Amino acid sequence: MRVAILHYHLLPGGVTKVIGNIAAALAESDVRIGVICGQAPDEPPNYPVAVVEGLDYDNRVSSPLPPRELYERLREAATDLLGDLPDLWHVHNHSLAKNHILPRALRMLADNGQRLLLQIHDFPEDGRPGNYSRLAETLAGEGDAPSGELLYPQASHLHYATLNGRDLRSLREAGVPAERLHLLPNAVVMEQSAAVGNPAHPAAERLFVYPTRAIRRKNIGELLLWSLLGEGRDRYALTMAPDNPVWQPIYERWVALADELKLPVLFAASKSYPGGYDGLLRDADAAFTTSIAEGFGLAFLEPWLSGLPILGRDLPDITRDFTSEGIELPGLYDFLPVPLDWFHDKMLHARFSEELAHSFAEYGRPLPADAVDRALAAACRGGTIDFARLDEDMQAMVLRRLAVNPGDRAQFAVPFDLETSRRLLDRNRRHVEASFSLPAYGRRLMDAYVATAQSPVERVSALDPGLLLDQFLKPERFHLMLS
């Protein structure tokens, strides 16, 4: 089988790592792969690569190619790499508004009988209104929506892959037939390092490590909350600062607040901690997460391979994929209650109303009359609101209140079942290795490849992109920090 893998670039990052895992997983198979990208990697990888000018991100392409020319160049590159046209094209993130010519070229491939496996890592409909509006501008369809013929083409020989069951269900509910959908979670591969999960600090102390880059959706205020509520012997480490200038001001506010309240939090710890990232893992008692949105959910799996339990916020839409594989996560909570009467009358309603209207407007949708009530009903339980549904200003208000009024801390009684989690270390590690190892990934990948390559070719139609937007743009899913 010949497979052409398409991505905009091979710079360090998530999709490049996925492509490397594809090559490794298929190394002993009879699948021959060739990778086509718009920007070459800094160092040559161990798989064949062709660079096609015009395939990179729009903001890095000096002169966009006509769709027909990009189509021809893709075919030529694939033939040069593989000796003939591929049996299928494995395309990553085609619908994310990174290159407005690519969807047109892909439609030409589909119309000419080429089989495509379109793997979506991130949906423009899922909290990325800027991407969606760019698609509407460049892939004009009916009204203000992008063209479904280009964004989500439909035919027997066009299949889709997702990282998680939630996204797969969203595509199915929007109208993609189940036989054309493939669940393709990432492989979880840890590099060997020094001994981990073996704290070297005094037994009276505990170190919790949040291995993430501190962008907004990682909900940094909640990590600070737990550091404030700690037993005095707990320390928290956040591994990486954001590299995008957009997120820097928010991050710096949290750094300043932690300093003001004298919280036991170490920022950008991978650079400042003795031994760097490996040193943090070696000394940690547990990994921690407070994220409110994930694509795959690597943070819930990798710690077990490092000898660490995972504590913090649960994301049931993501973690049910893992618990269905036998992985137990007793150290997670899905709600952190803040009394509603800690906020001024109408404050929350006004804030939700303003940001919901803005979010729907960015997607070209009118705000439903009951949207604010639905959003608040999902955010609240029994006279409290989930801390993660607040924005940074309100989270900081809560932190300052607790610093001044220690008696209010009893409100936050969510237990971290660290001991039970520790007893699950070996068991969960085995489940992660069995279900999310490179061999397991290779088996899922081959199933998707065979199903796509064997599918009959038929005339291409379109999925209404508005139906997919309906799956994601729901008031019940709304978070102020994702608006």
Overview features:
483 residues; alpha/beta; 7-stranded parallel sheet; 6-stranded parallel sheet; 15% strand
In words, what does this structure look like?
The chain has 483 residues and is α/β, with parallel strands linked by helices. It is built from 19 helices and 18 strands. Strands 3-2-1-4-5-7-8 form a seven-stranded parallel β-sheet, sandwiched between helices. The protein has a six-stranded parallel β-sheet with strand order 11-10-9-12-13-14. The protein has a three-stranded antiparallel β-sheet with strand order 15-17-16. Strand 7, helix 6 and strand 8 form a beta-alpha-beta unit. Helix 6 packs across helix 19. The longest helix is centred in the first third of the chain and has 16 residues. The chain starts with a strand and ends in an 11-residue tail after the last helix. The model has no long low-confidence stretch (mean pLDDT 92).
